[in-house]
Specification:
Helix content is 50%, strand content 15%. It is of the alpha/beta class. It is built from 14 helices and eleven strands. Helix 1 packs parallel to helix 12 (306-328), helix 2 (58-65) packs parallel to helix 3 (86-95) and helix 9 packs across helix 13. It folds into two domains: 2-25 and 275-368, no CATH class; 43-256, Alpha-Beta Complex (Spore Coat Polysaccharide Biosynthesis Protein SpsA, Chain A), CATH 3.90.550.10. GO terms for molecular function: ceramide glucosyltransferase activity.
Length: 384
Amino acid sequence: MELALTAAFASSALLLSNLASILLASSKLKARRLIPPPSGNQPPVSIVVPSRGVEPFTQETLQRALSLGWPRYELIFCVAHAEDPVVKLINAAIAGHPEIPAQLLIGDDRVSANPKLNNCVKGWQAAQHNWVILADSNVLMPVDYVQHLMAAWRPDTGLVCSTPIGSRPDGFWAEVECAFLNTLQARWQYTGEALGLGFAQGKSMLWNKPMLDANGGIEALAAEIAEDAAATKLVNGLGLRVNLVASPFEQPLGQRTCAEIWSRQTRWARLRRVTFPLFYTPEILTGVAVPLLLALVAAASAGVGLPTTALCVLAFAYAPECLLAWAKGWYLSPRIVTAMIVRDVMLPAIWTRGWLGGAVEWRGNAMTIRTKAMTELEEASSGA
């Protein structure tokens, strides 16, 4: 009986913490609304977009970037290699919007082991304005994209970000990706902000350029293998906050495979484990696997039916997730609960993989993830 009570208490505590995270995230998130074009003088903005390869929604994301409702902005597209097929699409998009100051820069500045950061360096250096947005090429920018980012800036802000919200999934595995991105990862990121633990997200990052330049410039983001982890530590070190936009931006997904999700999620897990190990450790408790296992142990010890127990746990875990998605206008479908279950089956394996070494892959680039301490140790050994 003691085992049953202990397991039941632990399971209930985890399920209640899951519910609390949804309520906290919901308090920070706002349903999508259009912010009208600003009146009066507004600061001009530079938007740096690192690109690589052609994706299913590339043409749409390019058109969105060239159709923003901010009075003055420039676009700087960055591509590492001239033979990349996306170059042709970018040039055509720029030519179709001569009213928008836009340019394409080609080259690869090797300031880090992070290929995306390397691709951004030339754009950062070319940016003419004091406000700079680093935006991934697969962000589906709404017309009020800049307004949402600027609205989240406060006197104590060092960086404004947006986590991606998965949309337009084509097939079941893309729905699994939505289950990862939206009601799990975005939810916990907004929960962290509600608790005063703001973490940067590299999808959309609004910087005050003079501030970052005074603290090492964009090269300072090479201090960690992930530029968003380096950004978080830099901003926090300055006594400033990382803020999130109230309504995060879409990332249209299209088709996904199980292998692609595994590769992407294990890469992110490894990055989180190396850069924020204390926060990564309890991630194993965020899915339904642990509370379900504990509830089944309690049920078996107390002689309660296991199927009924499992259904109650799943309902208590997934109903609030679905309500959060519905309230914020995120993707929902009749298969989303099944996608959430598959996600939570994968989570323990992904979490375990995060503790293991070895290279990970980012868009065809093999990356060996190292901590700063590992690099300094190797440098000291080589110089001895």
